[in-house]
Amino acid sequence: MSWSRFGWGAGGEHQDVEMEFPEGENNMALQSTNKNTGDDAIRWNHSAASAHQFTTDADVSAGNLDGKLIALSGLFKLSGTPTSDIALLAQSAGHRPIRIGTDKKIRIYDKDGAVVAGPSSAALSTVALERVTVWYDDLTLLNVWIVCMIEDTEEFAVNTGLSMGDLFAFGSGRKFFIGDNLGSRGADLDGDDVSFMQSTTAGDAPHLERYRKYVAVGGFMRPPTADGSHTAWSNNGYLDVDESPPDDSTTEVGTVTKGAKETYHAYDDTVQNPIPTGFEISYVTVRAKTQLVDAAKLGTDILLRDASANEVVLQLIAGTTTYTTKGGLTSTNPAGGVWVRGDFDDDGGSPKRSKLQFGLQSQNNPDVDTAPNVTAIYLPEVWCDDPTDTDGNRHPTTTTPVAKSFPIKSRVMNPLIIR
After folding, report:
1. Which residues pair with 117 in a beta bridge?
2. Domains 4-207 and 226-385 share a fold
């Protein structure tokens, strides 16, 4: 299996809206009433207004969609019957490819707003969270094959006869977001463990291979509790980046030195390794709320360091002169191997601290000055899969992709009478 993150998901485990959504949000909230794992989950406040989280940091283009498998998956529940359809997946400029209708059923639309798949047989629940997964398969056939499952039931599987360019709007400003931006929809949408993934491996197609049910491990994403091995940034170390919610310029660390490192520990005597035994770690992300002192200068990346002093740098998207939350991601641990549960053990000391250190490394370019500030950084968010869990969305889909059939006109010849 070779799935990787396509866009930022939503696990609800940062316990702070500002740190949960690294590409920004509108009218989102955390809630603990309807959740799958951990401390909190997400609410899209569609009953009152637009509500969405930006999930991709790049414009949608043929280069990042053609010839790929794309999967949006998560647990969702409606607060009631919508008065207008709600986009699960949308793009800027009003494109809304995956929607929940006023009948609470799921439909897929092309970029011009025409239905190309669905509706689902089942309506999305207003009682309990249900896992919904939608795959766009542009690897198996010449056209895009779309599959939708709710829990363990395949709701529809369709050869659209269309390309990714027919289904999605390409170009500047056409980023993806989860949720709707068209105002009140008459019902809220609760969700948890929402992932947006991609693969370029044909064997990962949903009719061939079970799809992972990604979950963000709870009880883990928290501010630092101690300084680590590196303390090269100015001010008061972890005490200036541990606020929740972040207090921006009130307390912050900063540097004008290129390549300067600053790391932290987390945990205490009551919090230890929260990853369940047997879970497979897919990828790790770290959020930091950062700003540039000068727009012409460079900022910071994320630094992870293990107990053996191995280090890995997670590149951040360029910041701005306004404090914004950014995220970095890695599927390999600081030693260059696969993440394992033991990477997140405590150090055995008193008080307990995480073996894994997380922090900052200022960007280093010989031709450009560096001047970042950081007001908050949280312990890594760990997205996992439980390979022993065989409930909904865990097995290959039942329908095999079939090529689109087109009628062939036959040539009619004038009859000849041969004597």
Report:
1. 108
2. yes
DSSP category for residue 164: H
Tell which residue, 25, 37, 78, 52, has the closest CA to residue 287. Answer: 25
What pLDDT sits at residue 318?
67
What is the per-residue pLDDT for 76? 96
307 C-beta neighbours (distance < 10 Å), count: 13
**Could you read off the pLDDT of 288-326 as tens digits, one per residue?**
999 999 999 999 999 999 999 999 999 886 678 999 888
> With respect to CATH, is domain 226-385 assigned 2.60.120?
yes
- Just give the CATH number of 4-207: 2.60.120.200
CA distances from 245 to 220, 253, 310, 369, 381 (A): 16, 16, 31, 30, 17
C-alpha–C-alpha distance, residues 361 and 375, integer Å: 14
Q: State the chain's maximal CA–CA distance in angstroms.
A: 108
Listing DSSP states for 72-120 in one string gives EEEEEEESS--SS-EEEEEEGGG---EEE-TTS-EEEE-TTS-EEE---
Structure tokens at 228: 């680590």
DSSP state string for 248-301: GGGS-EE--STT-EEEEE--BTTB---SPTTPEEEEEEEEEEEEESSTTSB-EE
Burial 151-186 (b: 16+ CB within 10 A, else e): eeebbbbbbbebebbebbbbeeebbbbbbbbbebbb
Asked if residue 65 lies in contact with residue 200, where contact means CB atoms within 8 angstroms, the answer is no
Give the span between the Cα atoms of 51 and 23, in whole angstroms: 14
Summarised one tens digit per residue, pLDDT across range 129-143 is 999 999 999 999 999
**pLDDT tens per residue across span 106-132:** 999 999 999 999 999 999 999 999 999
Domain boundaries of the chain, sorted by first residue: 4-207, 226-385
Is residue 418 pLDDT above 50, yes or no? no
Residue 269 or residue 403, greater confidence = 403
Rg (CA), the chain: 24
